[in-house]
Specification:
3-stranded antiparallel beta sheet; 280 residues; single chain
């Protein structure tokens, strides 16, 4: 597959007195569908509503044949504070990740507007097909990774994920929800699977937390990988891929133990709160 649309740097332009930031590649599509004002996009009720809860709505729509898009709308109470809308924050992360060579789905547009004591915002992204999410593979196709016969397949995927995580942390950022739900894969049956990451609302850029990033990220990922598909040998291989070496120092071994302890802590916490994962 051509992976370049998921890694290319985004060039932007503005609509509606700079209330909307738009990926230039989608300028004409937004104009064709009269979606060049904040009101037109935020009040759009067509398509299919995928999720609706307090402060959030996600709709799936089609701008063109066989191409779907998602509109994620946010409502945030200001409560006397001034901050950016979540839709624009996430769009900025998509742009930043790509500037650092980190693949993501294709961001289309974002915008924000204060309405009384509420800050409203939106984010539009293109459907990530033909990429597939790792969660879908382990849940819906458990035999895809399971067993010794698929060891090499698991290793190739874990190597790609480990390298992505290392590159992400090297760029000075950590996606706080680095797990099977948010990891996308392309060319999954090839020798060089591709990795992309979506849902970038929660990204940590605090340099004081950098030492903890690999622990948190890899522990959460391992927690969401079923034990009947990914064993301890796979866990070791993931950290080797992240570190970029197979021979470990004493500190590397401590890091592995820390990751496993964190993974076990997540499991206990989830069980205590009756938040059993979809997998694991």
């Amino acid at each position: 597959m051509d992976f370049s649309p998921y890694t290319s740097v985004i060039q932007t332009m503005c609509f509606d007195e700079e209330r909307i930031i738009c990926n230039q590649l989608f300028r004409d599509a937004l104009r064709t569908h009269d979606l060049t004002s904040f009101a037109a996009i935020f009040n759009f009720t067509g398509g299919e509503c995928l999720k609706e809860k307090d402060g959030l709505e996600i709709r799936k729509i089609a701008f063109a044949d066989d191409v779907s898009f998602f509109i994620k709308k946010h409502w945030q109470p200001l409560k006397g504070r001034s901050f950016k809308g979540e839709g624009c924050v996430e769009f900025a992360e998509y742009v930043s990740f790509r500037e650092n060579g980190l693949a993501t789905p294709i961001p289309v547009a974002c915008g924000e507007k204060r309405q009384g004591d509420v800050l409203t915002s939106f984010l539009i992204t293109q459907d990530f097909s033909p990429l597939v999410d790792l969660e879908g593979l382990v849940l819906d196709h458990p035999d895809f990774f399971r067993g010794e016969a698929n060891r090499q397949k698991r290793c190739k995927v874990l190597r790609a994920i480990g390298r992505y995580a290392r590159q992400m942390h090297g760029a000075g950022c950590n996606q706080k929800d680095f797990n099977a739900t948010h990891i996308l894969l392309g060319d999954v049956d090839s020798d060089l699977p591709r990795v992309a990451l979506f849902d970038l609302q929660r990204v940590d850029r605090n340099p004081l937390q950098r030492l903890r990033w690999p622990v948190k990220a890899l522990a959460e990922l391992l927690f969401t990988l079923p034990e009947d598909q990914f064993d301890r040998e796979d866990h070791v291989f993931l950290l080797q891929a992240y570190l970029g070496r197979s021979e470990w120092s004493f500190l590397d071994r401590l890091l592995y133990r820390w990751i496993q302890a964190k993974r076990n802590s997540i499991a206990r916490h989830s069980q205590k709160r009756n938040l059993a994962p979809k997998m694991g």
